[in-house]
Design a protein that fits this description.
This protein is an alpha/beta fold. 37% of the residues lie in helices and 18% in strands. Helix 2 runs parallel beside helix 5. The two termini are 13 Å apart. The mean pLDDT is 98. It binds ligand CA2.
Length: 145
């Protein structure tokens, strides 16, 4: 069982700035923890980060035949991208939306997710654990469906 782990814009900066909001782990640290969890579940993971909306959309489209689901932190595109939402809808794979911070207790513009209506669930506010909880949820969802 293989999953695509997608990280949106600016998440490549994790661990270098704003640790109070986003924690002190780097993206490589988070991917490493996910890889370790994947061996336990077990499942396979493919990782991709981009600052470009179109590259994220192409990754979603291209994983259609290889992957059983998508674990995604769309970052700021969460709140703006109809195109990413449409790509997830079109591909039809189960997607778990995750966020490091609790988007619902931050600025009002972060309260709306355009992705949530096409996701199987949303986990936020748990720091890097959001990714680990999200992978467990996605794995169990696919295993039981
Ligand atoms: O809490 C999350 O995971 C977010 O998806 C992070 C996005 C933000 O736009 C969403 O509203 C919530 C921002 C990612 C920016 O990452 C940075 C990492 C280090 C330093 C600066 C930004």
């Amino acid at each position: 069982m293989k999953f695509l782990v997608l990280h949106g814009p600016n998440l490549n900066l994790l661990g270098t700035r704003e640790p109070g909001i986003y924690g002190s782990l780097t993206l490589a640290d988070i991917n490493g923890q996910l890889a370790q969890l994947a061996t336990e579940l077990p499942c396979e993971l493919m990782f991709f980060q981009s600052n470009c909306e179109g590259e994220l959309i192409t990754a979603i489209q291209n994983c259609r035949d290889e992957c059983r689901g998508i674990l995604m932190n769309p970052a700021a595109y969460t709140h703006t991208s109809i195109a990413i939402r449409d790509a997830l809808s079109a591909v039809g794979l189960p997607c778990m939306e995750v966020h490091l911070s609790n988007i619902h207790r931050r600025e009002p513009f972060r309260h709306v997710s355009l992705i949530a209506p096409v996701a199987i669930g949303q986990i936020c506010g748990c720091g890097h654990d959001s990714y680990l909880l999200g992978l467990r949820g996605l794995f169990n969802y696919v295993k039981n469906s």
